[in-house]
Amino acid sequence: AEVSQGHISVVLLGATGDLAKKYLWQGLFQLYMDQVSSGHSFTFHGAALTALEPGQRLMFDVLKKLACPPDESPNRCAVLKDQFLKLSQYHQLKTAENYTVLNREIETLLRQEGLKEAGRIFYFSVPPFAYTEIARHINSSCRPPPGAWLRVVLEKPFGHDLESAQQLAAELTSFFREEEMYRVDHYLGKQAIAHILPFRDQNRQLQETTSVYQHLTSSLSSGRTSFYEQYGVIRDVLQNHLTEALMFLTMELPANVSRAKEVLQCKLQAFQSLRGLEKNSAVVGQYQAYASQVQEELQKAQDYISTTPTFAGVLIHSDNLRWEGVPFLLTSGKALDERVGYVRVLFKNRAYCTQSETLRDAVHSQCKAKQIIFYIGHGALNTPAVLVSRNLFRPVMPEGSWREAVGRSDLHIFGQPLSDYYVYSPVKERDAYSVLISNIYHGRKDFFITTENLLASWGFWTPLLDSISHQPLRLYPGGVENQHLLDFEMVSGEVAFTLAEPMELLKPNRLMPTDYRTIQSKFRQSPLISAWSEDLISQLASDIEKTASGTVARSGQFHLALSGGSSPVILFQRLARHHYAFPWKHTHIWLVDERCVPLTDTESNFFSLHNHLLQSVRVPYFNVHPMPVHLNQRLCVEEDRGTELYAKEIMALVANASFDLVLLGVGVDGHTASLFPQSENGLEGAQTVVLTESPVKPHQRMSLSLPLINKARQVFVLVLGKGKHDITTLLSRVGHEPRKWPVSGVSPSSGQLVWYVDYEALLG
């Protein structure tokens, strides 16, 4: 990157903390060694709340232990280390006045030395609760003059859910511009992860990217109990480290992978393609000794029960067509059998080998696993590496930074000897923080987390975190004793542990959704099925599939009429993701009602149906029947006869105009479809499709009439949420009064009506 010559002041806040001691000072020293001849001059300012004298002593104890790389000559190392210590000084930064003094000292030094200021780096190695106050002080009294840049480096956690991340981001953006903020994820500095994008770019022609299975995993060492108890494994590792690696794997490659702006844009698009997570997208566990460690280290009472997961496996899918049908597994945990991190890409194998594999070498064996592994570190190799199966392809690797290593046959990676792989390791191993600090110096934003990407990530993970917050955790003993306890499998788009629970789980002191069985009884003299919403939707989706399969077996086709609104959305998603045996090829999809807006409008029921169901299943195009609300470049005008057109289409295709199944919802005012209390049309009479008026915008609607709905062979009514409790209670008491409560008029003349009501709507 192009950088102007001049002086750079680096201010490390939290200069005596653990992160600074272990990594940051060493990273800053490496930056100085790399750039001492670049034309820039440097000063390094360690800062903390500690008073001047003890703070200086603590900081210089760390600086004296700094080390040079093995290939650095001892003489040069001694000189550079001595210079670095002379350029480093400690400051107590506690008050606004302290920041003003620091700024004055930097300006005085520049003036005395006759130096031009290139920029300032402020590295926040402090807890996030301190960010806002520090940001205010820097913004008010420590900004460099015009013409010099400011780079503010922030360490995670960046919130613990979407709302807290939004709040923190809003506070920071009131002081700093987006281009000034560098949010660190140290995994992006790890050499194997940092090479995923260049590897894909340099081997574009060789990757059969439509036929793979991806596995990203990280095993953790113990420590930081107070932090971990608040955040858990998903927030600590999956939401950031492994998600970032996933983005590098799944994003569309920009024309130039060296252009930060293009990379960040492609990354954001990859986020937007991820399919939403549900409770059954994850399995979670906790090692047995964790609870007692929390009680002891955090001085919790003996009856304290931790619900923090220390292990998680999550199944993710992308709606990008390139990745259709490809599962991505993210796993991480404490107290596993080894500490290791890797990104594994396993290719589908289409070959069948008739004769023994033992006589074939790895290059020509098409039946051995084909995989690419970005080995982050630790484990059997104990070094960063890129491994490619010899029966896949010989990769193109940059000669200056990666070299081919000899694959030892006595070492096995994923069940295969190392000699079965092309193995590459870095020419020069570099610590992740050294890599990232160098990128900060060069202004390489693509190695950091932008506000937009941060919020996209939290938007993706927060619904899952909410849904599993009270989910029982699988207990595991830790280490090799785990055996197969944490093995899990993919079934119908969900994940579940392979083995049954061998011991009683700890549960929070409250009833869980799984503590209730599905209730089956009567509601308004018709069958009632009730459960927690997630279980209810699962049951409803299964019942719809069963009805569809039976109808297709009898008559060859299935006519399904679906309502709009918010309630059916999770049903549509369930049908799209978990019901692969659904006879979509023989299904006709009709609309129960539609808002008088263009079908491409987000308010359109068809738009929602398309987004959440139709684009994910293989329904023949000519079997989809949207309501004709948009004719002659105008919306729902009677002279255009849209209602007649839809009625004729139904008469032409649906035998006796009797749908096989109609799905309805209920509004808080008792409306169903777009038939509202006191509606002039649709509650009675011969018309089958009508125009109606809604009390809320958009007012104009098109709807199937009540008489047509009542001709259906089956009608399912779905009612979800506490907001529907009052109307549910009212409907349980009133009779057939469709002019007051249109849904009370739903009574199939020769079919069956079934109510699907969740506990919140039923019980409040």
Automatic annotation (TrEMBL):
Residues 533-755 form the Glucosamine/galactosamine-6-phosphate isomerase domain. Its EC number is 1.1.1.363, 1.1.1.47, 3.1.1.31. CDD domains: 6PGL. Keywords: Carbohydrate metabolism, Glucose metabolism, Hydrolase, NADP, Oxidoreductase. GO terms for molecular function: 6-phosphogluconolactonase activity; glucose 1-dehydrogenase [NAD(P)+] activity; glucose-6-phosphate dehydrogenase activity; NADP binding. Pfam families: G6PD_C (PF02781), G6PD_N (PF00479), Glucosamine_iso (PF01182). InterPro entries: 6-phosphogluconolactonase_DevB, G6P_DH, G6P_DH_AS, G6P_DH_C, G6P_DH_NAD-bd, Glc/Gal-6P_isomerase, NAD(P)-bd_dom_sf, NagB/RpiA_transferase-like. One of its GO terms (biological process) is glucose metabolic process. Residues 11-193 form the Glucose-6-phosphate dehydrogenase NAD-binding domain. Residues 222-481 form the Glucose-6-phosphate dehydrogenase C-terminal domain. The keyword Oxidoreductase applies. The keyword Oxidoreductase applies. Gene3D superfamilies: 3.40.50.1360, Dihydrodipicolinate Reductase, domain 2, NAD(P)-binding Rossmann-like Domain. It catalyses: D-glucose 6-phosphate + NAD(+) = 6-phospho-D-glucono-1,5-lactone + NADH + H(+); D-glucose + NADP(+) = D-glucono-1,5-lactone + NADPH + H(+); D-galactose 6-phosphate + NADP(+) = 6-phospho-D-galactono-1,5-lactone + NADPH + H(+); 2-deoxy-D-glucose 6-phosphate + NAD(+) = 2-deoxy-6-phospho-D-glucono-1,5-lactone + NADH + H(+). NCBIfam families: pgl. In the N-terminal section; belongs to the glucose-6-phosphate dehydrogenase family. This is GDH/6PGL endoplasmic bifunctional protein. It comes from Fulmarus glacialis.
